[in-house]
UniProtKB/TrEMBL annotation, chains A, B:
Pfam families: HGTP_anticodon, tRNA-synt_His. Its EC number is 6.1.1.21. The keyword Protein biosynthesis applies. This is histidine--tRNA ligase. The gene is Hars. GO terms for cellular component: cytosol; mitochondrion. Belongs to the class-II aminoacyl-tRNA synthetase family. InterPro entries: aa-tRNA-synth_II (IPR006195), aa-tRNA-synth_II/BPL/LPL (IPR045864), Adenylosuccin_syn_GTP-bd (IPR018220), Anticodon-bd (IPR004154), Anticodon-bd_dom_sf (IPR036621), His-tRNA-ligase (IPR015807), HisRS-like_core (IPR041715), HisRS/HisZ (IPR004516). Gene3D superfamilies: Anticodon-binding domain (3.40.50.800), Bira Bifunctional Protein, Domain 2 (3.30.930.10). GO terms for molecular function: ATP binding; GTP binding; histidine-tRNA ligase activity; identical protein binding; RNA binding.
């Protein structure tokens, strides 16, 4: 019995200990860590995007992760409730940035910049209820490219669409479609359909739901919740089912009601110009003028667009990730003026690439393929065949580091050669530099190629060069 | 009078408008934007650091910018009051990360990783009252390299110091000194000086102030505020003025009181081993064993170190930025265990490079030098010599982009050639591809070298290749 009691007490003590040390060991809701393997994929995606942004001559800026709360106030419409606020710990009231566009506009106004083409890649924060399986998070990266300045119409706008086209092609995510519309066309359409001015924004955000809800549901939201007349809703319904290319633009320019509206006419005129430029770029096949595209954010004033993946092309993937939009953007000519003390406007147009969804697809593709991703760039492992050679290994690896060679060694005094070779197999290190008593006497190092097991003696003073030559193509 | 009244009313209206649009146009206290020029310098610093981390075989990870509040609780000692909390908007209680070390430990415990060498470069947040002229901020980057795992003593520790040495040498910031100590030596010293166990941490944080306060002030804090006996304080005073190299370690190993303490003896033994390895690396000239080094954070358990710049070497800089420590780190063998449900320990040692102070110095150096920093990588501007060639420019630039050339054009229908050439002068674009009626007929493009004003006709199908060749060395 005494034995049993002791056992029970010990168990209890263990439980107590566990209770004490019990943390909820997790990342906050809607966030994630990136493991080295995931980082390797992420850096590939970033590299493709940054290369494209630089190809288009963009500079890069960075802004703080939080802004004064009032900087974000009144910029996002219905989405404002999703902003993360910081606790009031004395001092300024702060919020985490919700996108990179409003901080960019603040930056332009603050520094009186009227002309810039910049990119910005950083995390943004939204207190959404995300479906993480679909690659949506509360903390996620945006990769933004924007052109600010007073220019001739639609030239920068066309470049933004070209950029989306280049990036989505480069990443080989399968077929995609870029939907394009214009807020002026939407507003003109609302006007001719009989929507009162005061309801433009809220009806616009109903239209925005058409990619997730059938028309009937959107219609009842308009009529039921938002008090729109059924006739107006039906007229909207006629328009938002339209999509096409230059032909549709021409048709609407002839539309007896819509063409009477000044805003719509302006928007349609610019849309025609845009399609002409996109034709010169040779990318109209993936671009669709779509009257149902509305975009949620309040600040757009002209062209808006959104890129969606049409299907998963890769047949290795058994269950394709269902992804929504992977890029979006538009023109926001009024946002900078909201920050300028004198209301001076700086016209802007930009695109935002949503990396998380793209990343989910890339990750699945890599998982499904046989590709083995290396997470380090180590060129050589400094090893020893006998004991008591730690000092010699340290001396050699130090020489290699100083010569710019990427080198590792096992942190053991007397590692077994087999373990050292196994480490190379596991991590993909291509070469092993082996020091031994004899090699030290001869002033050489034995260089072993892991893949072929070939071994050659290399004079110590030539070792770095030899390693560089042998790893230069990889 | 009517005129005057109208004028006044207009002025009033303007004021009213201004009042309405009045924002405090700034970034939050202790934060900053990075302009394209500053980003160019920042990327240079990052590149040097990442290259070094990769040379040492590190993988890379990323973690969210905020953690559960309880993840950070009880890890930082007196510094905890500087943590930014997020507002409770329902759901989990969150805090912005204070460093990258605690999230790393959480990551290891959560994923049951017992063996990794990783780097992590990201922003951290401290509600400090920073002196921004000295390059200190509330939002700042840390560049961390850590080695986790059970290894033979001091081999990973020595590598961390080698890394600091490589990075500070590479960045050419002038002379630097890396101070080294060990928490076990400090604790042993406190014990033999008669400090009660319960006061170890708080006396340690007094010692930590010795780089900013004279000994007399630190002594009065110990005796006055913290209730240490004057005798104990004086005994500590004897030790903390000691600094040196292997000789001092040997001397202290012989010290009749200190060598009686088990912890101190262990620490001194390891310190001796560390210096032997650092001698093999050839870097002891910049390393100093300093008994006054304490480091603020609670979680260190063994070796600690801190790198300081000794003076500004660059004589072009009139008023040198006064900078404190630019790197620091140490061993924290207990931190991962605090997160593991069973308290399983994973020994860790790591280094953190503080980029902001380094960046301030680099920025001043660039300002003082004649160096002109380019903020884009554009290789060629697509220009036209006559009017009505917008379409032709769009076609050509699209061809160049698709061929991987970094190309820009002015967003104007009919830009003047002079303005286009001026743009290249201003931004450092080296080449101009000029389309004109005659060139179009001949199937060529006129390629102009901005620096020499040399112009050659290049066949259109060879243009991309020609641009690549001409810009390959830059």
């Amino acid at each position: 019995i005494a034995k049993e009691v002791a056992k029970l007490l010990e168990m209890k003590a263990q439980l107590g200990d566990e209770g004490k040390a019990k943390f909820v060991l997790k990342t906050p809701k809607g966030t994630r860590d990136y493991s080295p393997k995931q980082m390797a994929i992420r850096e590939r995606v970033f590299s493709a995007i940054v290369t494209c942004f630089k190809r288009h001559g963009a500079e890069v800026i960075d802004t703080p992760v939080f802004e004064l709360k009032e900087t974000l106030t009144g910029k996002y419409g219905e989405d404002s409730k999703l902003i993360y606020d910081l606790k009031d710990q004395g001092g300024e009231l702060l919020s985490l940035r919700y996108d990179l566009t409003v901080p960019f506009a603040r930056y332009l106004a603050m520094n009186k910049i009227t002309n810039i083409k910049r990119y910005h890649i950083a995390k943004v924060y939204r207190r959404d209820n995300p479906a993480m399986t679909r690659g949506r998070y509360r903390e996620f990266y945006q990769c933004d490219f924007d052109i600010a300045g007073q220019f001739d119409p639609m030239i920068p706008d066309a470049e933004c669409l070209k950029i989306v086209h280049e990036i989505l092609s480069e990443l080989q995510l399968g077929d995609f479609l870029i939907k394009v519309n214009d807020r002026r066309i939407l507003d003109g359409m609302f006007a001719v359909c009989g929507v009162p001015d005061s309801k433009f924004r809220t009806i616009c955000s109903s239209v925005d739901k058409l990619d997730k809800m059938p028309w009937e549901d959107v219609r009842s939201e308009m009529v039921g919740e938002k008090g729109l007349s059924p006739e107006a809703a039906d007229r909207i319904g006629e328009y938002v089912r339209l999509h096409g290319g230059l032909d549709l633009i021409e048709q609407l320019l002839q539309d007896p009601t819509l063409s009477q509206n000044k805003l719509a006419k302006e928007g349609l005129g610019d849309m025609k110009l845009l399609f002409e430029y996109l034709t010169l770029f040779g990318i109209t096949r993936q671009i669709c003028f779509d009257l149902s595209l509305a975009r949620g954010l309040d600040y757009y004033t002209g062209v808006i667009f959104e890129a969606v993946l049409v299907q998963q092309e890769n047949e290795h993937v058994e269950e394709p990730v269902s992804v929504g939009s992977v890029a979006g953007g538009g023109r926001y000519d009024g946002l900078v003026g909201m920050f300028d003390p004198k209301g001076r406007k700086v016209p802007c147009v930009g695109v935002s690439i949503g990396i998380e969804r793209i990343f989910s697809i890339m990750e699945q593709k890599v998982e499904a393929s046989a590709e083995k991703i290396r997470t380090t760039e180590t060129q050589v492992l400094v090893a020893s065949a006998q004991k008591k050679l730690l000092e010699e290994r340290l001396k050699l690896i130090s020489e290699l580091w100083d010569a710019g060679i990427k080198a590792e060694m096992l942190y053991k005094k007397n590692p077994k050669l087999l373990n050292q070779l196994q480490y190379c197999e596991d991590t993909g290190v291509p070469l092993v530099a082996i020091v031994g008593e004899q090699e030290l006497k001869d002033g050489v190092v034995k260089l072993r190629v892991v893949a072929t097991r070939e071994e050659v003696d290399v004079r110590r003073e030539n070792l770095a060069e030899e390693i560089k030559t042998r790893t230069s193509q990889s």
